[in-house]
Every structure is written in C-alpha cells, then in structure tokens.
Amino acid sequence: MRFTFFLLTLLAAGCQARPPQESAASHSPSRVAPDARLRETRWVPRQLAGQLVAVPADTQEPYLLLRADGTAEGNGSCNRFRGTFFSEQAGELKFSPLMSTRMACAAIAIENEFTRALGQSSTYRISGDTLLLFNATNAPVARLEAVYLR
C-alpha cells in the first residue's frame, strides 16, 4: 500500500505542467521590476508638459543620457545637446544651460518643449522604467522611459 501511494505521488509530481519554480504564484502581478538607474540609462521622453510625445516620421527619437561624470547629453530630435546636471541630494535633478546645435526640422516644437522641461527640472522620481521630472513647485514637467539597447 505504501509503495502504491509513493508511486502515485511520484507520478503526479511528474505530470505537473510547469516546474515548481515556475508555479502560478511566481507569476503573480505583485512582483515589481527594480527601478532603472538615473545615470547611464537612455531616457526617452514620452510626455512633455502634459502632452504625449509623437515624433514625426523621418526624425530622430529624442533622448537624454546622464553620465556618471555629471555630464548630460542627448538629442532633442533635431539637434544634439550637452551640458551638466546636478543631483547632490536624494531626488534632486537640475541641469546647467544646455549647449546645442541649431538645425531646424519637423520636430523642433518637441525639441523646444524637451529642453524647456530639462531647464525647469528641480526634482525627479524613478518608478520601474519611468523617470518623472518635476519643477520647483513640484508640478510634473516630463515623463521619460528607460530604453535599453540590445
């Protein structure tokens, strides 16, 4: 009898649809991805001044890259920019005036709003792959998304 019970238990375990480490409990929505890093992450604006960013065809996707050495660089869609940033206290993020090339393109309005948001930035919050920038009155000025290169 014990041998039959052992054999049935062993057979039932062998018929599981998923290995034990992949049970339904491990796929629960309560699992949270770690927050992206502020520095050395490519941040792409998804919302500026409360408006979704829609980049016209044949223009480059804007992005921001904050380097470990304190330099900020990126592309507004038409022009490359570069400057420095300050993040000396937890949650603080301020930019020096950004230097940029001055070429026109179909996305110049997006670029202007992007650089304006960076210039207004005072604090930030990262949640998962989302970077939120806030001005000095704690009003949101931009929502950016981490984009990982493969």
From TrEMBL:
Chain segments annotated as coiled-coil in the UniProt record: none
Q: Which PROSITE patterns match?
A: PROKAR_LIPOPROTEIN (PS51257)
Source organism superkingdom = Bacteria
Pfam families given in the database record: META
The DUF306 domain sits at 36-144
The name of this protein is META domain-containing protein
Tell me what organism the protein belongs to: Hymenobacter negativus
